[in-house]
Amino acid sequence: MKRTLYPKYASVLEKITRVGHPNLESIARCFGLLSATAAINGACDRRLGAMGLSEGRFVLLLLLHEEREGLFPHELARRAGVTRATITGLLDNLERDGIVARQACSSDRRKLRVCLTEAGRDMAARLYRSHTDWVASLFSDVTAEEARVLDGLFERLSRRLEADAKREEM
């Protein structure tokens, strides 16, 4: 099967093919998945960049979307899977642009909640719909059977990677 690979994966696969490996097709399949993922990430970056957003800023907008009480910065960091320092930088920029506001918590004024401003709520609502529709469209022509197979493969791959990570920790 002909695969469209990102140049770095194509170059590495070419080298592995020349040197030889007994599981060349498995390696090619993995590089195909990595190439598809890179293509999705690139398209996402271009779409968000056209709106003046990075993926990090976008994720915070979606996390805060519909959160009328806001969230604490440490909650945002945990949910976004980034450090508190990264969240601080993202929030500083979003606050500077009038998209979020930090507000003292009524029960403990030392704590700050992060809320979307009115402009931020408008932006989040607009982006939520357009971006989720775009993401959904990427798999819109996948049949129910193909989806079942893909879901099973992704789950099995995730379990294998989790097991490998646990073995590495030991």
Total count of helical runs of at least 4 residues: 7
The tally of beta strands, per DSSP, is: 2
| Residues in helices, as a percent range | 55-70%
Question: Beta-strand level of the residues, as a percent range?
Answer: 5-15%
Q: Over all CA atoms, what is the radius of gyration?
A: 21 Å
Order of helices and strands, N to C? HHHHHEEHH
Q: Report how far apart the termini are.
A: 39 Å
Task: List the strand order in the largest sheet.
Answer: 1-2
Give the biggest beta sheet: 2 strands, antiparallel
Indicate the structural class.
mainly alpha
pLDDT average, as an integer?
92
Spans of 5+ residues with little confidence (pLDDT < 50)? none
Q: Name the shape in a single word.
A: elongated
Explain what you see.
The protein is mostly helical. Helix content is 69%, strand content 6%. The protein has a two-stranded antiparallel ribbon. Helix 1 (7-19) runs antiparallel to helix 2. The two termini are 39 Å apart. The model has no long low-confidence stretch (mean pLDDT 92).
Care to give the gist of this entry?
By secondary structure, the chain is mostly helical. The chain has helices at 7-19, 24-50, 55-64, 73-80, 84-96, 118-137, 144-169, and strands at residues 100-104, 112-116.
Q: How are the SSEs placed, and which strands pair?
A:
Elements: H1 7-19, H2 24-50, H3 55-64, H4 73-80, H5 84-96, E1 100-104, E2 112-116, H6 118-137, H7 144-169
Antiparallel strand pairs: 1-2
Helix pairs in contact: 1-2, 3-6, 4-5
Keywords summarizing the entry:
single chain, 170 residues, mainly alpha, two-stranded antiparallel ribbon, 2 strands, 69% helix
